[in-house]
Protein backbone atom coordinates (compact mmCIF):
# COMPACT_ATOMS: atom_id res chain seq x y z
CA UNK A 1 0.00 0.00 0.00
CA UNK A 2 1.17 3.55 -0.70
CA UNK A 3 1.92 4.90 2.71
CA UNK A 4 1.98 8.48 3.86
CA UNK A 5 3.32 11.59 2.17
CA UNK A 6 7.09 11.44 2.72
CA UNK A 7 7.42 15.21 2.80
CA UNK A 8 4.76 17.83 3.60
CA UNK A 9 2.35 18.47 0.75
CA UNK A 10 1.97 21.98 -0.66
CA UNK A 11 -1.81 22.34 -0.62
CA UNK A 12 -3.10 25.10 -2.88
CA UNK A 13 -6.53 26.25 -3.96
CA UNK A 14 -7.90 24.94 -7.25
CA UNK A 15 -9.55 27.85 -9.05
CA UNK A 16 -10.66 27.63 -12.67
CA UNK A 17 -8.32 24.67 -13.26
CA UNK A 18 -5.25 26.44 -11.81
CA UNK A 19 -3.50 25.70 -8.51
CA UNK A 20 -3.09 28.94 -6.57
CA UNK A 21 -1.64 30.19 -3.29
CA UNK A 22 -3.69 32.47 -1.02
CA UNK A 23 -3.90 36.02 -2.37
CA UNK A 24 -1.77 37.23 0.56
CA UNK A 25 0.48 34.16 0.53
CA UNK A 26 -0.66 33.04 4.02
CA UNK A 27 -0.67 29.35 4.95
CA UNK A 28 -1.62 27.06 7.81
CA UNK A 29 -0.50 23.56 8.73
CA UNK A 30 -2.28 20.25 8.75
CA UNK A 31 -0.81 17.62 11.09
CA UNK A 32 -1.31 13.95 11.82
CA UNK A 33 -3.39 13.61 15.02
CA UNK A 34 -1.57 10.33 15.77
CA UNK A 35 1.96 11.70 16.07
CA UNK A 36 1.87 15.40 15.21
CA UNK A 37 3.81 14.92 11.96
CA UNK A 38 3.48 17.82 9.55
CA UNK A 39 1.49 16.55 6.57
CA UNK A 40 0.82 19.69 4.59
CA UNK A 41 1.18 23.43 4.33
CA UNK A 42 -2.15 24.77 3.18
CA UNK A 43 -3.21 27.98 1.45
CA UNK A 44 -5.05 30.03 4.07
CA UNK A 45 -7.81 31.41 1.89
CA UNK A 46 -8.84 35.05 2.00
CA UNK A 47 -12.21 36.50 1.12
CA UNK A 48 -10.65 37.49 -2.23
CA UNK A 49 -9.78 33.84 -2.88
CA UNK A 50 -13.36 32.81 -2.14
CA UNK A 51 -14.69 35.48 -4.51
CA UNK A 52 -12.23 34.45 -7.23
CA UNK A 53 -13.37 30.83 -6.98
CA UNK A 54 -16.99 31.91 -7.29
CA UNK A 55 -16.08 33.97 -10.37
CA UNK A 56 -14.48 30.88 -11.93
CA UNK A 57 -17.46 28.66 -11.08
CA UNK A 58 -19.90 31.30 -12.36
CA UNK A 59 -18.03 31.76 -15.62
CA UNK A 60 -17.83 28.00 -16.18
CA UNK A 61 -21.53 27.62 -15.47
CA UNK A 62 -22.56 30.50 -17.72
CA UNK A 63 -20.39 29.33 -20.61
CA UNK A 64 -22.59 26.23 -20.66
CA UNK A 65 -19.99 23.59 -21.49
CA UNK A 66 -20.90 21.67 -18.34
CA UNK A 67 -24.32 23.01 -17.41
CA UNK A 68 -25.74 22.46 -20.92
CA UNK A 69 -23.93 19.19 -21.57
CA UNK A 70 -26.23 16.21 -22.16
CA UNK A 71 -26.73 14.57 -18.75
CA UNK A 72 -25.49 11.23 -20.06
CA UNK A 73 -22.22 12.89 -21.11
CA UNK A 74 -21.80 14.38 -17.65
CA UNK A 75 -22.62 10.97 -16.19
CA UNK A 76 -19.90 9.41 -18.33
CA UNK A 77 -17.30 11.81 -16.93
CA UNK A 78 -18.46 11.24 -13.35
CA UNK A 79 -18.12 7.48 -13.90
CA UNK A 80 -14.57 8.08 -15.14
CA UNK A 81 -13.86 10.05 -11.96
CA UNK A 82 -15.33 7.22 -9.85
CA UNK A 83 -13.13 4.69 -11.63
CA UNK A 84 -10.11 6.90 -10.97
CA UNK A 85 -11.04 7.10 -7.27
CA UNK A 86 -11.15 3.30 -7.16
CA UNK A 87 -7.76 3.16 -8.82
CA UNK A 88 -6.37 5.52 -6.12
CA UNK A 89 -8.30 3.98 -3.26
CA UNK A 90 -5.32 2.98 -1.14
CA UNK A 91 -3.59 6.33 -1.57
CA UNK A 92 -6.73 8.32 -0.74
CA UNK A 93 -7.51 6.05 2.23
CA UNK A 94 -4.05 6.54 3.73
CA UNK A 95 -4.25 10.31 3.23
CA UNK A 96 -7.63 10.36 5.00
CA UNK A 97 -6.31 8.23 7.83
CA UNK A 98 -3.25 10.38 8.36
CA UNK A 99 -5.03 13.72 8.07
CA UNK A 100 -8.02 12.96 10.30
CA UNK A 101 -7.08 9.91 12.39
CA UNK A 102 -9.79 7.70 10.90
CA UNK A 103 -8.85 4.02 11.05
CA UNK A 104 -7.41 2.61 7.85
CA UNK A 105 -10.03 -0.14 7.92
CA UNK A 106 -12.75 2.46 7.77
CA UNK A 107 -11.03 4.67 5.19
CA UNK A 108 -10.19 1.78 2.93
CA UNK A 109 -13.34 -0.30 3.19
CA UNK A 110 -16.05 2.25 3.92
CA UNK A 111 -15.28 5.89 3.21
CA UNK A 112 -13.27 5.91 -0.01
CA UNK A 113 -15.49 3.23 -1.61
CA UNK A 114 -18.43 5.43 -0.64
CA UNK A 115 -16.78 8.37 -2.46
CA UNK A 116 -16.87 6.35 -5.69
CA UNK A 117 -20.41 5.20 -4.90
CA UNK A 118 -21.61 8.79 -4.38
CA UNK A 119 -20.33 9.66 -7.86
CA UNK A 120 -21.76 6.60 -9.59
CA UNK A 121 -25.10 6.82 -7.82
CA UNK A 122 -25.80 10.42 -8.85
CA UNK A 123 -24.37 9.92 -12.33
CA UNK A 124 -26.89 7.12 -12.84
CA UNK A 125 -29.70 8.86 -11.00
CA UNK A 126 -29.69 11.72 -13.48
CA UNK A 127 -30.46 9.46 -16.39
CA UNK A 128 -32.80 7.09 -14.53
CA UNK A 129 -35.00 9.43 -12.52
CA UNK A 130 -38.57 9.78 -13.70
CA UNK A 131 -39.90 13.16 -14.79
CA UNK A 132 -43.46 14.14 -14.09
CA UNK A 133 -45.79 14.79 -17.05
CA UNK A 134 -49.52 15.55 -16.78
CA UNK A 135 -51.54 15.29 -19.98
CA UNK A 136 -54.91 16.97 -19.34
CA UNK A 137 -57.08 17.30 -22.43
CA UNK A 138 -55.49 19.90 -24.67
CA UNK A 139 -53.05 20.88 -21.95
CA UNK A 140 -49.77 19.07 -21.51
CA UNK A 141 -47.75 19.92 -18.42
CA UNK A 142 -44.36 18.60 -17.44
CA UNK A 143 -41.40 19.46 -15.22
CA UNK A 144 -37.89 20.47 -16.21
CA UNK A 145 -34.96 20.28 -13.80
CA UNK A 146 -32.34 22.79 -14.96
CA UNK A 147 -29.27 23.10 -12.73
CA UNK A 148 -29.44 25.77 -10.03
CA UNK A 149 -26.06 27.36 -10.91
CA UNK A 150 -23.08 27.86 -8.61
CA UNK A 151 -23.04 25.68 -5.51
CA UNK A 152 -21.01 26.42 -2.37
CA UNK A 153 -20.19 23.18 -0.60
CA UNK A 154 -18.84 23.48 2.95
CA UNK A 155 -17.81 20.27 4.65
CA UNK A 156 -16.58 19.05 8.07
CA UNK A 157 -13.54 17.05 9.16
CA UNK A 158 -15.11 13.90 10.47
CA UNK A 159 -15.70 12.13 7.14
CA UNK A 160 -13.88 14.53 4.84
CA UNK A 161 -14.02 13.19 1.29
CA UNK A 162 -17.09 11.03 1.78
CA UNK A 163 -19.13 14.04 2.92
CA UNK A 164 -17.57 16.42 0.38
CA UNK A 165 -18.56 14.10 -2.47
CA UNK A 166 -22.02 13.60 -0.97
CA UNK A 167 -22.41 17.25 -2.00
CA UNK A 168 -20.20 17.44 -5.09
CA UNK A 169 -21.62 14.34 -6.82
CA UNK A 170 -25.28 15.44 -7.03
CA UNK A 171 -24.35 19.08 -7.63
CA UNK A 172 -22.22 18.14 -10.64
CA UNK A 173 -24.50 15.40 -11.93
CA UNK A 174 -27.37 17.87 -12.20
CA UNK A 175 -25.16 20.33 -14.11
CA UNK A 176 -24.03 22.82 -11.46
CA UNK A 177 -20.52 24.08 -10.87
CA UNK A 178 -19.06 23.87 -7.38
CA UNK A 179 -16.80 25.72 -4.97
CA UNK A 180 -15.82 23.30 -2.20
CA UNK A 181 -14.36 24.40 1.10
CA UNK A 182 -13.15 21.42 3.10
CA UNK A 183 -12.60 21.68 6.85
CA UNK A 184 -9.19 23.17 7.74
CA UNK A 185 -8.33 20.13 9.87
CA UNK A 186 -8.54 17.76 6.87
CA UNK A 187 -7.77 19.45 3.56
CA UNK A 188 -5.66 16.73 1.92
CA UNK A 189 -8.10 14.33 0.29
CA UNK A 190 -10.19 17.11 -1.24
CA UNK A 191 -7.17 18.36 -3.16
CA UNK A 192 -6.01 14.94 -4.24
CA UNK A 193 -9.54 14.11 -5.32
CA UNK A 194 -9.77 17.32 -7.37
CA UNK A 195 -6.46 16.51 -9.02
CA UNK A 196 -7.62 12.97 -9.83
CA UNK A 197 -10.95 14.30 -11.16
CA UNK A 198 -9.18 16.72 -13.53
CA UNK A 199 -6.96 13.93 -14.82
CA UNK A 200 -10.04 11.74 -15.32
CA UNK A 201 -11.68 14.32 -17.57
CA UNK A 202 -13.63 16.72 -15.35
CA UNK A 203 -13.39 20.06 -17.19
CA UNK A 204 -11.48 22.90 -15.45
CA UNK A 205 -13.64 25.34 -13.47
CA UNK A 206 -16.42 22.79 -12.83
CA UNK A 207 -15.00 21.87 -9.40
CA UNK A 208 -13.07 24.55 -7.51
CA UNK A 209 -11.53 23.99 -4.08
CA UNK A 210 -10.56 26.69 -1.59
CA UNK A 211 -9.03 26.16 1.83
CA UNK A 212 -9.21 27.95 5.11
CA UNK A 213 -11.63 29.13 7.71
CA UNK A 214 -15.15 30.43 8.11
CA UNK A 215 -16.51 33.87 8.96
CA UNK A 216 -14.68 36.75 7.35
CA UNK A 217 -12.10 34.53 5.64
CA UNK A 218 -12.46 32.38 2.55
CA UNK A 219 -15.86 30.97 3.53
CA UNK A 220 -17.37 34.46 3.79
CA UNK A 221 -18.13 34.90 0.07
CA UNK A 222 -19.23 31.28 -0.19
CA UNK A 223 -22.22 32.09 2.01
CA UNK A 224 -22.84 35.76 1.24
CA UNK A 225 -21.96 36.35 -2.43
CA UNK A 226 -25.14 36.86 -4.50
CA UNK A 227 -23.59 34.90 -7.39
CA UNK A 228 -23.95 31.71 -5.32
CA UNK A 229 -27.20 29.88 -6.07
CA UNK A 230 -27.11 27.08 -3.48
CA UNK A 231 -25.23 26.43 -0.25
CA UNK A 232 -24.87 22.89 0.98
CA UNK A 233 -23.33 22.68 4.43
CA UNK A 234 -22.43 19.89 6.80
CA UNK A 235 -21.08 20.84 10.20
CA UNK A 236 -22.12 21.97 13.65
CA UNK A 237 -25.51 23.48 14.42
CA UNK A 238 -23.83 26.68 15.66
CA UNK A 239 -22.02 27.23 12.36
CA UNK A 240 -25.20 26.31 10.51
CA UNK A 241 -27.03 29.24 12.10
CA UNK A 242 -24.30 31.66 10.97
CA UNK A 243 -24.50 30.30 7.43
CA UNK A 244 -28.28 30.59 7.38
CA UNK A 245 -28.02 34.20 8.55
CA UNK A 246 -25.44 35.06 5.87
CA UNK A 247 -27.46 33.31 3.15
CA UNK A 248 -30.70 35.04 4.10
CA UNK A 249 -29.46 38.39 2.79
CA UNK A 250 -29.49 37.01 -0.77
CA UNK A 251 -32.37 34.53 -0.30
CA UNK A 252 -29.88 31.78 -1.16
CA UNK A 253 -31.34 28.34 -0.44
CA UNK A 254 -29.35 26.35 2.13
CA UNK A 255 -29.31 22.65 2.81
CA UNK A 256 -27.77 22.12 6.24
CA UNK A 257 -26.81 18.80 7.81
CA UNK A 258 -25.80 19.51 11.38
CA UNK A 259 -25.20 18.04 14.81
CA UNK A 260 -26.85 15.16 16.60
CA UNK A 261 -27.57 13.66 20.00
CA UNK A 262 -29.29 10.51 18.87
CA UNK A 263 -30.95 7.98 21.13
CA UNK A 264 -30.20 4.27 20.94
CA UNK A 265 -33.07 2.39 22.60
CA UNK A 266 -32.69 -1.21 23.74
CA UNK A 267 -35.89 -2.99 24.79
CA UNK A 268 -35.99 -6.11 26.93
CA UNK A 269 -37.15 -8.17 23.93
CA UNK A 270 -34.03 -7.23 21.92
CA UNK A 271 -31.57 -9.84 20.75
CA UNK A 272 -28.62 -8.81 22.90
CA UNK A 273 -26.17 -10.67 20.68
CA UNK A 274 -27.07 -8.05 18.06
CA UNK A 275 -27.82 -5.09 20.32
CA UNK A 276 -24.56 -5.16 22.33
CA UNK A 277 -22.05 -5.15 19.44
CA UNK A 278 -24.17 -2.76 17.34
CA UNK A 279 -24.55 -0.36 20.25
CA UNK A 280 -20.78 -0.41 20.78
CA UNK A 281 -20.24 0.45 17.12
CA UNK A 282 -22.96 3.08 17.23
CA UNK A 283 -21.15 5.13 19.86
CA UNK A 284 -17.47 4.20 19.63
CA UNK A 285 -17.11 3.68 15.86
CA UNK A 286 -15.26 6.66 14.37
CA UNK A 287 -14.32 7.65 17.97
CA UNK A 288 -17.86 8.92 18.44
CA UNK A 289 -16.93 11.74 16.09
CA UNK A 290 -19.96 10.84 13.99
CA UNK A 291 -23.04 13.03 13.74
CA UNK A 292 -25.26 9.93 13.75
CA UNK A 293 -23.73 8.29 16.85
CA UNK A 294 -26.11 6.79 19.38
CA UNK A 295 -24.89 9.02 22.19
CA UNK A 296 -27.82 8.51 24.54
CA UNK A 297 -28.20 4.82 25.33
CA UNK A 298 -31.69 4.15 26.65
CA UNK A 299 -31.92 0.69 28.19
CA UNK A 300 -35.12 -0.82 29.55
CA UNK A 301 -34.69 -1.19 33.30
CA UNK A 302 -35.68 -4.89 33.29
CA UNK A 303 -32.49 -5.74 31.33
CA UNK A 304 -30.34 -2.81 32.36
CA UNK A 305 -28.03 -4.80 34.58
CA UNK A 306 -27.46 -7.63 32.11
CA UNK A 307 -27.03 -5.28 29.14
CA UNK A 308 -24.68 -2.92 30.96
CA UNK A 309 -22.55 -5.76 32.23
CA UNK A 310 -21.96 -6.99 28.69
CA UNK A 311 -21.61 -3.50 27.21
CA UNK A 312 -19.14 -2.38 29.86
CA UNK A 313 -17.12 -5.56 29.59
CA UNK A 314 -16.76 -5.22 25.82
CA UNK A 315 -16.05 -1.46 25.54
CA UNK A 316 -12.51 -1.52 27.00
CA UNK A 317 -11.63 -4.38 24.64
CA UNK A 318 -12.06 -2.16 21.59
CA UNK A 319 -8.57 -1.56 20.28
CA UNK A 320 -7.56 2.10 20.44
CA UNK A 321 -4.33 2.78 18.59
CA UNK A 322 -2.44 3.94 15.54
CA UNK A 323 -5.15 4.31 12.88
CA UNK A 324 -2.75 3.03 10.24
CA UNK A 325 -2.88 -0.42 11.89
CA UNK A 326 -5.60 -2.72 10.60
CA UNK A 327 -6.21 -3.92 14.17
CA UNK A 328 -7.24 -0.48 15.47
CA UNK A 329 -10.95 0.07 16.01
CA UNK A 330 -10.50 3.64 17.22
CA UNK A 331 -7.80 6.19 16.41
CA UNK A 332 -6.92 9.57 17.91
CA UNK A 333 -9.41 12.42 18.25
CA UNK A 334 -8.98 15.13 15.65
CA UNK A 335 -7.04 17.73 17.65
CA UNK A 336 -5.97 18.85 21.12
CA UNK A 337 -8.78 21.39 21.40
CA UNK A 338 -11.34 18.71 20.65
CA UNK A 339 -9.79 16.29 23.14
CA UNK A 340 -10.10 19.01 25.79
CA UNK A 341 -13.73 19.55 24.84
CA UNK A 342 -14.54 15.84 25.09
CA UNK A 343 -12.76 15.46 28.43
CA UNK A 344 -14.42 18.65 29.66
CA UNK A 345 -17.78 16.96 29.12
CA UNK A 346 -16.66 13.91 31.12
CA UNK A 347 -15.69 16.22 33.98
CA UNK A 348 -19.00 18.03 33.64
CA UNK A 349 -20.84 14.70 33.74
CA UNK A 350 -19.24 13.98 37.13
CA UNK A 351 -20.09 17.45 38.41
CA UNK A 352 -23.66 16.78 37.34
CA UNK A 353 -23.70 13.62 39.49
CA UNK A 354 -22.79 11.08 36.83
CA UNK A 355 -20.54 8.09 37.38
CA UNK A 356 -17.83 7.10 34.90
CA UNK A 357 -17.96 3.30 34.80
CA UNK A 358 -15.24 2.85 32.20
CA UNK A 359 -12.77 5.21 30.46
CA UNK A 360 -12.84 8.88 31.33
CA UNK A 361 -9.12 9.75 31.18
CA UNK A 362 -6.89 10.62 28.24
CA UNK A 363 -4.79 7.63 27.16
CA UNK A 364 -1.10 7.98 27.88
CA UNK A 365 1.97 5.81 27.39
CA UNK A 366 4.36 5.27 24.53
CA UNK A 367 1.78 4.20 21.96
CA UNK A 368 -0.26 7.35 22.60
CA UNK A 369 2.57 9.76 23.36
CA UNK A 370 2.03 12.36 20.66
CA UNK A 371 -1.59 11.64 19.77
CA UNK A 372 -4.98 12.80 21.02
CA UNK A 373 -6.20 9.45 22.31
CA UNK A 374 -9.32 8.99 24.42
CA UNK A 375 -10.83 5.64 25.44
CA UNK A 376 -14.41 4.39 25.18
CA UNK A 377 -16.17 6.07 28.10
CA UNK A 378 -19.50 5.13 29.66
CA UNK A 379 -21.42 7.32 32.07
CA UNK A 380 -24.37 6.30 34.24
CA UNK A 381 -26.38 8.09 36.89
CA UNK A 382 -27.57 11.01 34.78
CA UNK A 383 -30.98 11.71 33.38
CA UNK A 384 -32.00 13.38 30.17
CA UNK A 385 -32.10 16.86 31.74
CA UNK A 386 -28.32 16.90 32.27
CA UNK A 387 -26.16 18.95 29.91
CA UNK A 388 -24.15 15.79 29.25
CA UNK A 389 -27.29 14.20 27.81
CA UNK A 390 -28.42 17.28 25.90
CA UNK A 391 -25.30 18.72 24.26
CA UNK A 392 -23.29 17.24 21.43
CA UNK A 393 -19.96 15.92 22.79
CA UNK A 394 -18.78 14.42 19.49
CA UNK A 395 -16.47 11.92 21.13
CA UNK A 396 -16.45 8.35 22.50
CA UNK A 397 -18.69 9.14 25.46
CA UNK A 398 -21.93 7.25 26.08
CA UNK A 399 -24.60 8.42 28.52
CA UNK A 400 -26.77 5.55 29.77
CA UNK A 401 -30.35 6.30 30.81
CA UNK A 402 -32.88 3.76 32.07
CA UNK A 403 -36.59 3.60 31.22
CA UNK A 404 -39.59 1.38 32.01
CA UNK A 405 -42.19 1.83 29.28
CA UNK A 406 -42.29 2.45 25.54
CA UNK A 407 -44.00 5.78 26.10
CA UNK A 408 -41.29 6.86 28.52
CA UNK A 409 -38.55 5.84 26.08
CA UNK A 410 -40.17 7.89 23.32
CA UNK A 411 -40.63 10.90 25.57
CA UNK A 412 -36.94 10.88 26.59
CA UNK A 413 -35.82 10.29 23.00
CA UNK A 414 -37.77 13.19 21.59
CA UNK A 415 -36.85 15.52 24.47
CA UNK A 416 -33.81 16.91 22.66
CA UNK A 417 -33.11 19.99 20.57
CA UNK A 418 -31.53 17.62 18.02
CA UNK A 419 -33.34 15.19 15.73
CA UNK A 420 -30.86 13.54 13.41
CA UNK A 421 -31.12 9.78 13.85
CA UNK A 422 -32.44 7.03 16.07
CA UNK A 423 -31.49 3.42 16.73
CA UNK A 424 -33.85 0.82 18.10
CA UNK A 425 -33.34 -2.77 19.21
CA UNK A 426 -36.49 -4.83 19.58
CA UNK A 427 -37.98 -8.04 18.20
CA UNK A 428 -41.49 -6.54 18.36
CA UNK A 429 -42.45 -5.45 14.86
CA UNK A 430 -45.49 -3.45 15.95
CA UNK A 431 -43.44 -1.55 18.50
CA UNK A 432 -40.78 -0.81 15.88
CA UNK A 433 -43.34 0.70 13.51
CA UNK A 434 -45.10 2.60 16.28
CA UNK A 435 -41.87 4.21 17.44
CA UNK A 436 -40.49 4.95 13.96
CA UNK A 437 -43.69 6.87 13.18
CA UNK A 438 -43.35 9.11 16.25
CA UNK A 439 -39.56 9.46 16.48
CA UNK A 440 -38.24 12.99 16.01
CA UNK A 441 -35.39 12.07 13.66
CA UNK A 442 -34.53 12.16 9.97
CA UNK A 443 -33.43 8.51 10.03
CA UNK A 444 -34.46 5.58 12.21
CA UNK A 445 -32.56 2.28 12.19
CA UNK A 446 -34.17 -0.84 13.62
CA UNK A 447 -31.87 -3.68 14.67
CA UNK A 448 -29.11 -2.12 12.59
CA UNK A 449 -27.05 1.01 12.35
CA UNK A 450 -25.43 3.26 9.74
CA UNK A 451 -26.92 1.59 6.66
CA UNK A 452 -27.34 4.15 3.88
CA UNK A 453 -29.38 3.79 0.73
CA UNK A 454 -28.65 6.96 -1.25
CA UNK A 455 -32.21 7.05 -2.59
CA UNK A 456 -33.52 7.85 0.88
CA UNK A 457 -33.90 11.36 2.26
CA UNK A 458 -31.05 12.27 4.58
CA UNK A 459 -31.21 15.14 7.05
CA UNK A 460 -32.41 16.08 10.47
CA UNK A 461 -35.18 17.68 12.47
CA UNK A 462 -34.81 20.44 15.05
CA UNK A 463 -31.30 21.91 15.16
CA UNK A 464 -29.93 18.84 13.35
CA UNK A 465 -30.86 19.94 9.91
CA UNK A 466 -32.65 21.95 7.35
CA UNK A 467 -33.86 20.19 4.22
CA UNK A 468 -33.02 16.73 2.96
CA UNK A 469 -30.55 15.37 0.42
CA UNK A 470 -30.44 11.99 -1.34
CA UNK A 471 -32.09 10.75 -4.56
CA UNK A 472 -35.00 12.96 -5.58
CA UNK A 473 -34.38 15.24 -2.57
CA UNK A 474 -30.96 16.14 -3.95
CA UNK A 475 -32.52 16.80 -7.34
CA UNK A 476 -35.00 19.20 -5.81
CA UNK A 477 -32.25 21.08 -4.02
CA UNK A 478 -29.62 21.21 -6.75
CA UNK A 479 -32.02 22.15 -9.57
CA UNK A 480 -34.70 24.76 -10.19
CA UNK A 481 -37.75 22.59 -10.84
CA UNK A 482 -39.72 24.34 -13.55
CA UNK A 483 -43.34 23.69 -14.54
CA UNK A 484 -44.00 23.91 -18.29
CA UNK A 485 -47.55 23.92 -19.66
CA UNK A 486 -48.41 23.76 -23.39
CA UNK A 487 -51.82 24.23 -24.96
CA UNK A 488 -51.96 21.79 -27.82
CA UNK A 489 -53.85 22.58 -31.03
CA UNK A 490 -55.98 20.00 -32.79
P1 LIG B 1 -17.90 23.19 11.97
O1 LIG B 1 -19.28 23.70 11.97
O2 LIG B 1 -16.94 23.76 12.93
O3 LIG B 1 -17.22 23.36 10.52
C1 LIG B 1 -17.80 22.80 9.35
C2 LIG B 1 -17.31 23.59 8.15
O4 LIG B 1 -17.85 24.91 8.20
C3 LIG B 1 -15.80 23.74 8.07
O5 LIG B 1 -15.40 23.65 6.73
C4 LIG B 1 -15.59 25.14 8.62
O6 LIG B 1 -14.38 25.74 8.21
C5 LIG B 1 -16.79 25.85 8.05
N1 LIG B 1 -17.17 27.09 8.72
C6 LIG B 1 -16.97 27.43 10.01
N2 LIG B 1 -17.50 28.64 10.26
C7 LIG B 1 -18.05 29.09 9.11
C8 LIG B 1 -18.75 30.25 8.73
N3 LIG B 1 -19.03 31.22 9.60
N4 LIG B 1 -19.17 30.36 7.46
C9 LIG B 1 -18.94 29.38 6.57
N5 LIG B 1 -18.28 28.24 6.87
C10 LIG B 1 -17.84 28.09 8.13
O7 LIG B 1 -18.05 21.61 12.14
P2 LIG B 1 -16.88 20.53 12.31
O8 LIG B 1 -16.32 20.66 13.68
O9 LIG B 1 -15.98 20.59 11.14
O10 LIG B 1 -17.71 19.17 12.18
C11 LIG B 1 -18.34 18.55 13.26
C12 LIG B 1 -19.82 18.87 13.26
O11 LIG B 1 -20.40 18.46 12.04
C13 LIG B 1 -20.58 18.13 14.34
O12 LIG B 1 -21.53 19.00 14.93
C14 LIG B 1 -21.29 17.02 13.58
O13 LIG B 1 -22.46 16.53 14.19
C15 LIG B 1 -21.59 17.71 12.29
N6 LIG B 1 -21.81 16.74 11.23
C16 LIG B 1 -23.09 16.57 10.74
C17 LIG B 1 -23.33 15.63 9.77
C18 LIG B 1 -24.72 15.42 9.23
O14 LIG B 1 -24.84 14.76 8.20
N7 LIG B 1 -25.77 15.92 9.86
C19 LIG B 1 -22.29 14.87 9.25
C20 LIG B 1 -20.99 15.07 9.76
C21 LIG B 1 -20.77 16.02 10.74
TrEMBL record:
Gene3D superfamilies in alphabetical order? Aldehyde Dehydrogenase, Chain A, domain 1 (3.40.605.10), Aldehyde Dehydrogenase, Chain A, domain 2 (3.40.309.10)
Identify which residues the record assigns to the active site. Answer: 257
Enumerate the UniProt keywords alphabetically.
Answer: Oxidoreductase
Record-linked CDD domains: ALDH_F8_HMSADH
A Gene Ontology molecular function term for this protein is:
oxidoreductase activity, acting on the aldehyde or oxo group of donors, NAD or NADP as acceptor
Q: What Pfam families would the database entry show?
A: Aldedh
SUPFAM superfamilies in the record: ALDH-like
Q: Where is the Aldehyde dehydrogenase domain?
A: 19-484
Q: Which PANTHER family match?
A: ALDEHYDE DEHYDROGENASE-RELATED
Write out the similarity annotation.
Belongs to the aldehyde dehydrogenase family.
* Protein name as it appears in the record: Aldehyde dehydrogenase
Amino acid sequence: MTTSPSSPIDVKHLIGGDWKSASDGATFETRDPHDGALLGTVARGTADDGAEAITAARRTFDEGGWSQMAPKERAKILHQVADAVDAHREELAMLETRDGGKTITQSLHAEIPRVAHNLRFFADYVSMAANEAYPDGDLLSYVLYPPAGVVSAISPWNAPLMLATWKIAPALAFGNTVVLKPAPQTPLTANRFAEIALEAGLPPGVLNVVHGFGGEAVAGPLTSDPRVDRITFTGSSATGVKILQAAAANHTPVSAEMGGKSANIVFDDADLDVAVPMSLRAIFGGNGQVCLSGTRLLVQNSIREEFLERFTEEAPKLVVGDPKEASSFMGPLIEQRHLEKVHGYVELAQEEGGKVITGGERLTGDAYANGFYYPPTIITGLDNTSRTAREEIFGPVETVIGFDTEEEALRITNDSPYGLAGILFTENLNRAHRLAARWKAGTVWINTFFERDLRLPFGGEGISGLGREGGQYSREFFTEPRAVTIRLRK
